[in-house]
Amino acid sequence: MDGILIIRKPAGPTSHDIVNEVRRIFGQRKVGHAGTLDPMATGVLIVCLGKATRVVEYLMALPKEYRARMILGRTTDTQDSTGNIISERDASHVTREMLEQAAAHFIGEIEQVPPMTSAIKYQGKPLYKFAREGKSVERAPRKVTIWSIQVTDFVQPATSSAPHLAEAELVVRCSGGTYIRTLCADIGEALECGAHMSALERTKVGRFGIEQAVTIDELKEAKAVGRLENLLLSIEEALADLPAAVVSTEDVAKLLHGQAVHAMTDAENGALVRALASNGKLLAVGSVLRKNSETLVKPRKVLASADI
User: Of the N and C termini of the chain, which has fewer Cβ atoms inside 10 Å?
Assistant: First the structure.
């Protein structure tokens, strides 16, 4: 089968564990996910099957929305609650208004240093493997974009047994590649009390929200009644967030052979687009190239066959 699943990941399994479950349920090997969720994290995990694995990179780039809980006044070596505590400071003076003001400074394009527990590779080896060996390596900061941060809950003190700690909940809208645990830690440093992330749920990827997601148990139930295919979204549906660029009938063959062709689109120069035939058929993912008064689309990944 070919298509996209919106999975509701529980806490505990890795994203790869979920992929393996989907492989077993569908009885096929060509399955991959479009954006890792850590074992402790829950929420939306996009899983691609068959030909849909070809668009994983574009789904990974879609905007994300997260709901995170953070503890102010305590830092850990993983920036989340799975790590060892490395410092405790008094956060009893922090107010909701102070947290909102500190968070506001992280809205826009910012630079993040990836955590050592991330899957980013250094000299061909994932950072988390260095971390497991007790090693730390130099990491170059990466640019990400945060569109909004809402403080939706604030508890002071966090518990009666820890009067020096505060707890908060944030809803964050951001670009792909943003580390929410690092954001929590950085906000804590901005408040001079430190912080770590204690829970994380991914509530949205592009247009796909948690309310659309299905659990692994629901997949198994659908298989039992022969309705698995009903849960799959098409590649066209998955890429619907990308702006469209319509190609004339006479230029379709050229596009399918990798040539840049004229197209009608409102997308800006360099933007990623869905290249469509005049009948709405998805042809390719491409990028807009504006030269003088001409608007072209250059294919980056052809998705349709030449016999369209």
Answer: C
Q: Are residues 258 and 282 in the same domain?
A: yes
Residue closest to 213 by CA, chosen among 26, 2, 33:
33
Threshold 0.70, pTM exceeds: yes
Count Cβ neighbours within 10 Å for each residue of 135-150 and write b for 16 or more, e otherwise: eeeeeeeeebebeebe
Is 222 within a domain? yes
Residues 69 and 105 in one domain: yes
C-alpha–C-alpha distance, residues 129 and 121, integer Å: 9
To the query of whether residue 77 is one of the catalytic residues in this protein, the response is no
CB 272 within 8 A of CB 282: no
Angle in degrees, CA 224, 230, 235, rounded to 5:
135
For the stretch 28-69, pLDDT in tens is 999 999 988 999 999 999 999 999 999 999 999 899 999 999
pLDDT at position 196 is 97
Number of domains in the chain: 3
Q: Which long-range CB contacts under 8 A does 297-302 form with residues at least 24 apart?
A: 297/245, 297/247, 297/255, 297/260, 297/261, 297/262, 297/263, 297/265, 297/273, 298/260, 299/255, 299/256, 299/258, 299/259, 299/260, 299/275, 300/272, 301/54, 301/55, 301/58, 302/255, 302/256, 302/258
Which is nearest to 56 in space by CA: 37, 33, 38, 36? 33
Of 17, 38, 77, 90, the active-site residue reads 38
Domain that holds residue 273: 242-302
> Based on C-alpha coordinates, what's the Rg of the chain?
22
**Looking at residues 185-212, what average pLDDT do you find?**
97
